[in-house]
Design a protein that fits this description.
This protein has 161 residues and is an alpha/beta fold. The protein is built from 5 helices and 8 strands.
Length: 161
């Protein structure tokens, strides 16, 4: 069944560069189609208009629409990671040329926001013991890249060391 909802990402002129970067970060990814502006414009004929690409099976479209709009944190993409190794991979690659945020958030070099989240977060923060959940939350608020072992240790009341 075709994907019903496809995120469209507005770039000034970097849609193809961004798509190539993203497919280098996510496995099972590819460029599906590149469409170019024609003589009808509004940009020079032959320049990239849109790039359709897949990231691990999820379809996206990048459009070179101009400088009018830029990304902000109001929209982000969450990457749920199986383990710390996967968290490290996505964090390290997506922050190349970008910036680290707090609590697992980052901005890549194109200004797009991502949340890199290890599996098990819901269990830690939804613990039936409110003290465990509170200790984990306090630990997370001091982190940039999330460390699930440190979050679990904090929940258990084990001092950071």
């Amino acid at each position: 069944m075709p994907q019903k909802i496809t995120p469209n990402l507005w770039f000034d002129t970097e849609a193809e560069e961004a798509a190539n970067f993203y497919i280098s970060v996510f496995r099972n990814s590819r460029i599906v189609n590149v469409a170019r502006y024609t003589e009808a414009g509004p940009r020079p004929a032959g320049t990239v208009m849109t790039v359709e690409f897949e990231l691990d099976g999820q379809t996206f479209v990048g459009i070179n629409g101009g400088p009018q709009f830029t990304f902000d944190e109001a929209v982000s993409f969450q990457i749920t990671c199986a383990d710390q190794e996967e968290v490290d991979h996505y964090w390290d690659r997506l922050t190349e040329g970008g910036s680290e945020g707090q609590c697992g958030w980052l901005k890549d070099r194109f200004g797009l926001s991502w949340q890199v989240v290890p599996t098990g977060m819901a269990e830690v923060f939804g613990d039936p013991d409110p003290k465990r959940a509170e200790r984990a939350m306090q630990a997370m608020l001091k982190m940039r890249k999330l460390d699930v072992a440190a979050l679990r240790a904090a929940a258990d009341g084990v001092p950071a060391g």
